[in-house]
Structures are given as structure tokens and as C-alpha cells.
Design goal:
Layout lengths: L1 E5 L3 H9 L4 E5 L14 H13 L3 E6 L8 H14 L3 E4 L2 H10 L5 E3 L8 H9 L4 E3 L6 H10 L4 E8 L11 H6 L17 E4 L4 E2 L14 E3 L4 H7 L3 E4 L6 H20 L7 H10 L4 E2 L7 H4 L10 E9 L4 E6 L3 E2 L3 E5 L7 E3 L4 E2 L2 E2 L2 E2 L4 E5 L9 E6 L1 H9 L9 E9 L4 E8 L4 E9 L1 E2 L7 H8 L7 E10 L3 E2 L2 H20 L6 H15 L12 E6 L2 H8 L5 E5 L11 H13 L3 E5 L14 H4 L4 E4 L2 H9 L3 E4 L8 H9 L2 E5 L6 H5 L7 E7 L2 E5 L3 H6 L15 E4 L5 E6 L5 E4 L3 E3 L4 H5 L5 E6 L4 H17 L8 H11 L4 E2 L9
Parallel strand pairs: 1-2, 1-11, 2-3, 3-4, 4-5, 5-6, 6-7, 7-11, 10-12, 23-27, 29-30, 29-41, 30-31, 32-33, 33-34, 34-35, 35-41, 40-42
Antiparallel strand pairs: 7-10, 8-9, 8-37, 13-14, 13-22, 14-21, 15-20, 16-17, 16-22, 18-19, 18-21, 23-24, 24-25, 26-28, 35-40, 36-39, 37-38, 38-39
Length: 828
Amino acid sequence: MELLAPVGNREALYAAIENGADAVYLGGKNFSARQSAENFSDQEIARAVEYAHGKNRKVYVTINTLIDHEEFGACLDYAWKLHVMGVDAVIVQDVGLMRALTQVLPELRLHASTQMTIHNAEGVKFLEKQGIKRVVLAREMTLAEIQKIKSQVHAAEIEVFVHGALCFSYSGQCLFSSMVGGRSGNRGRCAQPCRLPYDLYSLDTQAPINTADKGRYLLSPSDLCLIDYLPELRDIGVNSLKIEGRMKRAEYTAVVTRAYREVLDIVEVEPAFRPARQVRERLLQIFNRSFSSGYFVFDRNEYLSSKRPNNRGVYTGRVISQDKDLIASVRLSQRISLGDGLEIWVKKGKNPSFIVKGMKVNGLPAASAEAGETAEFKLDRIVSPHDRVFKTHDQELVSEAMGSIKNAEAAEVQVDIKAILTPGQPLQLILNDERGHQIIEYGQVNARVAENKPLEEAVIRSKIERLGNTPFYLGSFECQIDGDLIIPFSDINETRRRAVERLKELRLNIQRPSSQARDSFRQRKACFLTLDKPGKQAEKPELTIAVSGLDQAYAAAKSGVDTLYLDLAGIGQKERISIDQLLAIKDYSARHGCRFIPALPRIQKPSELRVWEGLKAAGFDTLMTPNIGSLYWAQKREIKIRADYSFNIFNPYSLRFMLQQGAERVCLSPELNFNRLKNMGSLRQAELMVHGDVILMTSQYCMLQGILRDESGSCPGLCRRDRYGIRDDKGYIFPVDTDTSCRFYVFNSRTLCMIDDLDKIIGLGVGGLRIEARHAQEQEVVQLLGMYRQALEEIGADSSRPPSWYREELERKAAAPLTRGHYYRGVI
């Protein structure tokens, strides 16, 4: 199995490779899902590739964000640069970019990011058909589910996360940061709202629910740690083990990579090996929000870190006492040393944290103290007996980690060089390395007899040995000069530079693309970027609505909607909808002139798609598909499809790709604004959300059960007893709900409403207008459809009511404040 480590800067690159990573992944200054990381310039990426390849390791570069239309050409040029540099693969999220790269730059190896939300074998198979060589699975997969996917997929490699931070939402399905602050996680700028404190709130009683014993960080998962499960991952046949952490410091990368490397090496010899407790303690010490095995081997008690969203360190002891001079005595449970960072968890107020710059043991100054001893520290605030002490920084561990990369950047390859200078001939340089590679390079200027001061061997050597910023250093040097000769210093320098570059390429087996290949890339790029001219616009957009319950579906069908989507996930419902019930709604809809289309659940784990095998036989020839796996599943059964907004269609090339896959209608990303929508080309087959509660998070974890469950751990159906929300410290309330598979959803605190901008939206030539009512009640569905139908009919007609009247009416009756979402502001 490949061990894949995160690299946020050059120091972390050395840490990863010097501590045993088989490959690293890093991001450039743009198009990376970790825009807050230091990241790499183009020149730094080239140097990283040279360094890694010199060590026989691989480099993967992330282009794992949604790409804006205006960025697309530059993004393809960037991919070409990476190809020229010799990167081993590019990691992508955007389906339009995926299609572009497979057509424009087919030589470049592509990996599918976890941002694509691939969680079933059908999704992997679809991407395999598109030319993807490796798929990074969603982090919500269990051991059995990964095993099932791996058994059904044979060509594409499978990569899984084994260590680091977890997202509360499925990656690629989180709009929380985007909708609240305009910083899109899909564009690499997540503000991490999941790490903020929230109060659980009853929407029925309009009062907070006391969860003080569980903490306020209701959406903050513990960190993933699968170091105890490497034998299982090996048995499944997983191809790559991924460590998360491009935002972390180099010492984190060093410690975590070394721990996994050591255990992996032993597992190769002893397949049933489990690491010792000390290995896990090292991992805990470098950074942890507490550890869990995530969903791989799910333990509800470990999953959330609801009392603390950041590094909690390692339990180190308890306060015994504190005197009037604020000197605290701490009984230690593990060793501490000068330079360590400690934090004391107090019952009230801010926890004191400090670096140990001085301490006493048995009344005497000490550089360290062992477990079982009592250490004394001078603090700047009051603590209490029995307060717990945690070590958040281990200076010895960090020093050891940084020592592993101390000499990493030093040139490591000895090169022996011979220079030959003959009258009337150009300078000849012969380079030999330790692998037996030889390069012969010639200058551009013929040597001539010197009139005054001829070149001496010492001068030539001084020019030749300038090998800085390369992996080489000069070994032996031989100079053969036939007479008193001279050539320009610039020719010596340029000849040396070309010779070194050729040797580097020979060692790294880099084959630079020819000028013909570059011209071919440019032609294919220009062809791909050419969009069809917009055809005839839709005369009248279709009014659609998405609901989750049977009552809401019947209400919508009789209220004048053109197309009704019923979400089979059953958000807020008690029982799963049967095919017989779907047939009844279909007949009812037809009698009211409404088209009925079932909407498959956004998440469908292995085997869950099988639940809906009878849909086609029952006469349903069209489905709304929300993920890549369900798209492929429907294609294989020759079922027509409509694509939901969960596909994150953000540019015209992604829209074109979905239409090429047979989609008759595509709901575009709610992160698009008017300016970007104008650049989308023809929107005749596109649908835009104009009203409703946008789903901000889709989670496999039911927070309600995790926070409110009783001591038995069983689920008493908490989500059916009340209607819940989470309230942030600014007072905004975000409704939450579950579906019939106990998945968990967080909705926006504000309701999207564009009723007074319908003329502007229709002016885009859009084919459909969507009301998102999966969280709405029956009466609300009737009211919304009536208002929007009436507003649409009055566009262009003489009406005494201005469009603002409709918004004011909806605002007066709405349970939450209204918003125009991203239509005017957009995302960065």
C-alpha cells in the first residue's frame, strides 16, 4: 500500500519524504481546496517534483476545486505546466475540468478527489469510464463498504483517508461556509463553521436544550486515526492510505508519516501486527481532537469532539494545590520537559496555557519531571485542585521530528565533471553521477587564443562548481586546456546550466513534451473551450418543486406545479416511501397536469441503490439523480435523468458534460451569481433554485442521537419528538432534520427567495425554476406555489402589484428571514 502524506510547504515536503512517505500531495497557489495553506508556486512545485523523484517518490497536485468559467483556460494551462514538470497525477473535483483534461491532456494521470462524494461502486465505475485512474472515497465508508466497492472495481485504484481531520458533512456536499460567509469550501476557502459552538434548539418550544454535559461543539468531529486497522486495509486491497493535514506544520507531517511508515513496514512482514500503545501516544501528542476510527469501525461515543474543537493534547496530570503566589503543584502522569506546552482545564473561565520555561521538582529547579513526580509552576491565574493538565506541545518529540529533515535540502548527489577546451572548438563538459549516467554538453562559442590573460583551471572550476539550487555537488574536477585560450564566462555558465538540466532529466526520467505536443495541446484546448452558441430560449420556464413527504407531494400536484420531485430519502419522514405509493402519486399528478419524477437520495451507500430496482419496471422512465453513482446506475438501465444541485455544476463545461451524459435538465449550483450565470451559455436545459431552504450539510452522523441519547445508547426516535435547530452565538438558528436512513441534514438559517427577481432570472433563458421545499410543511407548499405561479403570470402583464409585494407577503408569513443567497454576492 502506498503511504500518501500531506505537504503544505517545502519544509513539510522534506518531513514527509524523509519520514517514509511513498508519495505526497500538495497544492499550488490557485485551484486548491486548501487556499489557506502556504502552498507552492510553480517554481516550487517543479523543485518539489525534482526532489521527490530524486528519492523515487511521487508527487500529486491538487486542482480539487470548482473552476469558474473565466478561470478555465488558465486552469488548463496550469495543468499543462504540471504535466511538463513531470507530476505523477492531478487530483480533481470539477466534472467539467475532468472532461477537459481527459480530452485536452490525455497523457496526464487523474485522481478523483473526495470532494466528488464517491461512496458506491457505481460512482467508481463511472469515473473509471471517464479516464480516472484513482478514486479517493468519501470518508464516511465502513470497512465492509470499502471491501464491497473494492471487490466490484478492478481497474481504478482506491484511496482512503487514514488519519487527520474529519468533516461533519460529506465532502463536496457542504455549503455552510459558503452560504453564511461567502467563503466556499468547494472553492477551497472553507471557514470551518463546523468547529464553532452551537446551542441545540427546540423549534417547537422556541427554547435552547441544555447539552452542557456534552459540550457546545455539536458539529465538530474527533480526528480520524486508523493506525490500528492497517491489516484490514491491506486485506481489502486498498491502494493508497492518505494522511490529512496540508494546513499542519512540518513536525506534524514528520511524526504522523513516521508512525504509519513504521507500522506499515511491520505489517508487510507480520500481517496481523497491531502497534504498541506508545505509537498512538506519539500521534496524540503531535495533534488531536481526540481520536476515533471514523466510520471505518464506527463508534458513536468517540465520533464527536463536542467539548473542544481544536488540539486537546495528552492528559498529563492534575493540580494538587496552588499557593497565594499562584505557584501550582501538579501531580504528573507522564514525563514533561522544559519547552513543553501545557494547558490546565478549569471549570470556569479561560483555560491557562503556557510554555514550561521553568519548574521545580522536590523544591529544586529541574529540566524535566517524570510520571509520578510533583512539579511546581508559576501561573498567571487561579486554578483549582483536581483541575486536569494536558500537554499540548512535546518539545522532545518536535525536536526529534525536525531533526529528521535537518539535512534534507542539502545537495546529495555527487557529480564528477571534466572540462575540455581546444582551440577553435566549443567548451566540452562531461558529467558523470554515481548511477553511471553520463552527459556530454557543448558550448556555443569556439575557444580562441588569448591576447592577454588566458583562462586558468581555477577560474573555470569556479564557474563550473556553481551548482546551488540543484540536487548536485561537485566531486572530482578535471580540466584539460590545450594552450592559452579564452571563451566568455557567460558561455561557461550557460553550458554548465544545460548540462546539469540534462543530467537532472536523465536521472528523473523526465521526457519533456515536444513543441508538436505543445501545439497539439493548444489546439485541443481551443476546441474544448469553444461553446455552442445559445439556441432558442425557453419560451416559458418550467416551475418545479422538490418535497420530501407524501402529504406535501399531493399538495404540490394539485397546486399548479409543472414538475414535482419527491425525495426518496424522506427528510423529516417516519417511513420509507414504497413504489406503490409512488405510483399513486404519479397517477394523481397526471390527473392534475403535473409531471412526477422520483428523486433518488443524495447518499446511496453500497446496496442502497438496489432498493429502487423496481422503479423502471413500475413505469418510471425518469429520475432525478443527485450523485455520480446514481447517474451511472440510471444510465445502465436506460432511465432518463435530471441532475440535482448536489453535482455542484459551476461552469458551462460541467453543464455541457452533464448534458452529454443524457441529462434532460440540470439544477445548477446555488453558489453561482448573476454574473457567472450570464457566462454559462445556453440555460435552456438548466434549472435554478429560486426559493427554499438550502441544505448546508449532509452528514452520515446523527448529531441528535450523539448528543441526546440515553445511557443505553439506543435511539428512542428523538428526531420524531421535536423539531430541532442549532443556534450560533450571533443568534441565527439553522434547522436540522434526519431522513429515513437516519442521515442528518443542516438547513440554512435564512430562506432563499427570488420572487421579486423572477424577470431577471427568466431573462437568463433558464428552462426551470425550482422551489426547494424538502423541509416545508403541506400548507407552506400550497402557499408558495400559489404565490410563484401568480407572480410568473404577471411578468410582462399589466399588474397593480409590484414584484416587491410578493416578497413582502412571503416575508410576513415566513418562519425564517429571507435571503437572495448568492445571486448578487457570489462566492470567492
